[in-house]
Amino acid sequence: MIVAATFAETRRLGSGIVGLVPTMGFLHEGHLSLIARSSASNDTTIVSLFVNPTQFDDPADLERYPRNFERDRDLAFSAGADVLFAPDESEMYPREPLASVVVRQLTDHMEGSLRPGHFEGVATVVAKLFAGIQPDVAYFGRKDAQQVSVVTTMARDLSFPVQIEPGATIREYDGLALSSRNVFLSDADREQALEISSGLFAASDLIDDGETDAARIEAACLDRIGDLDLEYVQLADQATAQPLDRLDRPAFLAVAGSVGATRLIDNVAIDRMNGQWVVDRGERLAERSMLYGENDAAGS
Amino acid sequence: MIVAATFAETRRLGSGIVGLVPTMGFLHEGHLSLIARSSASNDTTIVSLFVNPTQFDDPADLERYPRNFERDRDLAFSAGADVLFAPDESEMYPREPLASVVVRQLTDHMEGSLRPGHFEGVATVVAKLFAGIQPDVAYFGRKDAQQVSVVTTMARDLSFPVQIEPGATIREYDGLALSSRNVFLSDADREQALEISSGLFAASDLIDDGETDAARIEAACLDRIGDLDLEYVQLADQATAQPLDRLDRPAFLAVAGSVGATRLIDNVAIDRMNGQWVVDRGERLAERSMLYGENDAAGS
Q1: Distance from CA of A62 to the nearest CA of B (A)
Q2: Are B292 and B236 contacting, i.e. CB atoms less than 8 angstroms apart?
């Protein structure tokens, strides 16, 4: 249980097979499930904690992003982390960066088109973590489905010897996908926010019944969206994040929208197993998330 | 002395402190001086040999680029290489790549503006070598001054723990900078090509005499250029590759031009030592280069 502030120290601390769980902190059960998986499978589990400014397209979102170092440190170690890499900005960006990693095609739609520069920031900071820490395996939540596609492609195309392990989306007891940003939701906001997962589950039921037409699958989801400020409902190819007209390859059905000032995304993954389409709706907590355990966190 | 075709095997073979010398083959004394330096300083020296298609802006140039595997293998090992990493294209680019590394600002001028996509290809393939081989030190010839700036910035901004070691430009007995492409020059071409180094040396003499005005330094070089199809003469910042009006920081004076169908570049580096500007004119061979030792090479 060591906190390291530099790449050099973190790299030295990684012995044997090294698993990395990149996070922006304010950990919840989604992060902890990734940390526990890494801890069970690897010799060293490194959790990185850095709120990366280059992936925020909205300065207000960066400003209010929840932060609580002591809470994250304790949670990471209790979940099985061996090393917490918590760099400050001068370690990550010692000078104005001129080099960055761009991922074409996968970033043309959805989050890529709606959040200019977001995926360049993500691909670049993850490349830096891979370059500077040299992990063997890295864990990413499926809640950010397009991000999983982008990171997988980045690692392959830049020849990083890192295996990407996606982890199931963890949901709150009522279906809402866990996100550090959920702490901003009022009770009324939550009711609206549930339209997203409710829509995804309705579409999932249709897929279970054999539907493969994208327009009908998306319509089933849209039917449940009422007051939410919707940005998109999109069936997309898991590997390329390109829109699909028909469910004919591993895919995800993704939704984005805003409740008040809080933007939320969610999706269900659809994989082929034993000749059938199987929807991964994620896993649901039995109890209230640890996100709300203490109220000292947001804005601190 | 092992030839490896995959990143995984090459990475396993690198024990202790690992030095990497990236090349596109058809080795000459410039490459061999880098290999010898690495061999003297590191536990393992890896030479990579790959004619990288993504950094060629001209398909004809890629097509006729000289290749001779057996010659390169023997030269690399005799100079001190422990491992020759010679991947085929399916190892380097198993699929159409979608992710790449872009380096802004440093690529705005000179080779960056004249060869579209060239430095994106260079930065990306070097990032792949750093990611897949994990060297501690990497060696690049100063003959490609802007490339040294681009690679140094890429390594820093992507947090690769790789020290970049530039090596002095090695010149033929008459001053012509060594380049694998020199094998294409006829005797008449060589006379024209010498205008480049001759111009650089005239400008260097002026700098030795205390001149710091870029226009006058560049003019001294231009005075020696006659029949050559000149593209640019430019004094530029070593760190940023930006044009300079005045020699007031570490710089290089760069020239590019064509002789017949062969494009050539050259430069002298200018460093500050003991309060004076000192020009690095490179090192000159006493004899005819090994490039011309056998005529079985070009086009084979």
Answers
A1: 22
A2: no
Read off the pLDDT band of A293 (50, 70, 90). confident
HSE at residue B12, side-chain half, CA atoms within 13 A, is 8
Ramachandran region of residue B260, left (φ > 0), alpha (ψ -120 to 50) or beta? left
Helix (H, G, I), strand (E, B) or coil at B163: strand
Interchain contact, B153 vs A8, CB within 8 Å: no
Answer whether B106 touches A (CB < 8 Å).
Answer: yes
| A–B interface: beta-carbon pairs under 8 A | 94
pLDDT digits (tens, 9 = 90+) for B158-206: 999 999 999 999 999 999 999 999 999 999 999 999 999 999 999 999 9
A157: contact with B, CB 8 A cutoff: yes
With beta carbons less than 8 A apart as the criterion, state whether B132 and B11 touch: yes
Cβ-based neighbours of B251, under 8 Å, separated by 6 or more: B235, B236, B237, B238, B244, B269, B270
The answer to whether residue B15 neighbours chain A at the CB level (below 8 Å) is: no
> Which chain A residues are closer than 8 Å to B124 by Cβ?
158
Residue B118 backbone dihedrals phi, psi, to 5 degrees? -60, -50
Chain A residues whose CB is inside 8 A of the B102 CB are: 99-102
Residue A298 binned pLDDT confidence (cut-offs 50, 70, 90): very low
Beta strands in A95-192 (DSSP E): 99-103, 137-141, 163-167, 170-171
Instruction: State the smallest CA–CA distance between residue B255 and chain A in angstroms.
Output: 24
| A127/B130 Cβ within 8 A | no
CA atoms within 13 A on the CB side of B73: 11
**Interchain CB distance below 8 Å, A99 and B160:** no
Residue ranges of alpha helices (H) inside B101-258 are 111-114, 118-133, 145-157, 187-208, 214-222
DSSP B247: -
Is pLDDT of A294 > 80? no
Which chain A residue has the Cα nearest residue B127?
Answer: A158
Nearest C-alpha in A relative to B95: A157
The domains located in chain A, with CATH, are 2-167 (3.40.50.620), 180-292 (3.30.1300.10)
**How far lies A126's CA from each of A23, A147, A229, B101, B257, in Å?**
10, 11, 30, 13, 40
Within 8 A of A128 by CB-CB distance, chain B residues are: 158-159
By the 8 A CB rule, do B235 and B217 touch?
yes
Instruction: Identify the band that residue B294 occupies on the pLDDT scale cut at 50, 70 and 90.
Output: low
Q: Which of A102, A123, A158 sits opposite B131 (nearest CB)?
A: A158
Q: Which residues of B are catalytic?
A: 31
Contact A16, A43 (CB under 8 A): yes
